[in-house]
UniProtKB/TrEMBL annotation:
Name by which UniProt lists this protein: Guanidinium exporter
Cellular compartments annotated: Cell membrane
Major localization class: membrane
GO biological process, one term: xenobiotic detoxification by transmembrane export across the plasma membrane
Organism: Stenotrophomonas koreensis
Mode of membrane association: Multi-pass membrane protein
Amino acid sequence: MAWIYLLLAGLLEVVWACSMKLSDGFSKPVPATITIVTMIGSFALLSLAMRSLPLGTAYTIWTGIGAVGAFVLGIVALGEPVTPLRITAAVLIVSGLVLMKLSAT
């Protein structure tokens, strides 16, 4: 169950990162509210996952899901640039996540 909590926490991190961008410095109430609500949910699910997962594993995977998810969402939804260096960085992050998952007991 901890891995499910962690996956959901990571997905909520993607949502809050995107809605934070759309809030324009918290000047738009709807995206700002979505940011705050999903942040709270993400942290709550992360804390549940950390009950049984090691700190380093849980935090690394949570931030990795958020980073790669925000990267992909930025490209797909916000028209951010796709460059070979950015793609390589995302692949390296995903590789690290896979290794972290494989190393978890």
